[in-house]
Write a structure and sequence with these properties.
about 100 residues, mainly beta, Rieske Iron-sulfur Protein, 4-stranded antiparallel β-sheet, 3-stranded antiparallel β-sheet, globular, Rieske_2Fe-2S_sf, metal ion binding
């Protein structure tokens, strides 16, 4: 696990782009949970961190594809492929991500 950011840097339901190792990751705080996904839409290779978090997940700003925060599965077109989801551990005010392991 590699430190990604401080928990205090994450606003609820507001995406944050971070580099963990050499992997671009978007972090999303959802209440007490923190989710880490590859910061790249599987449809158009755009940064998901520039989109919004909705009840469906994180939405790509260009074409509107949404990805589930837990599974990375697309919940709306045009994306048909999931994005990678990474393990997260919160220790105090520190958020750690393992960019070498995917959960999907």
């Amino acid at each position: 696990m590699i430190r990604a950011c401080a928990l205090s840097e994450l606003d609820d339901k507001k995406p944050l782009a971070v580099e963990v190792g050499d992997v671009a990751i978007v972090l999303v705080r959802d209440g007490d949970e923190v989710h880490a996904l590859r910061d790249e839409c599987s449809h158009a290779s755009l940064s998901l961190s520039e989109g919004e978090v909705t009840r469906k997940g994180i939405e790509c700003w260009l074409h509107g594809s949404c990805f589930d925060l837990r599974t990375g599965q697309p919940s709306s077109p045009p994306a048909t492929e999931p994005v990678d989801v990474y393990p997260v551990r919160v220790d105090g005010d520190e958020v750690f991500v393992d960019p070498t392991t995917t959960l999907n």
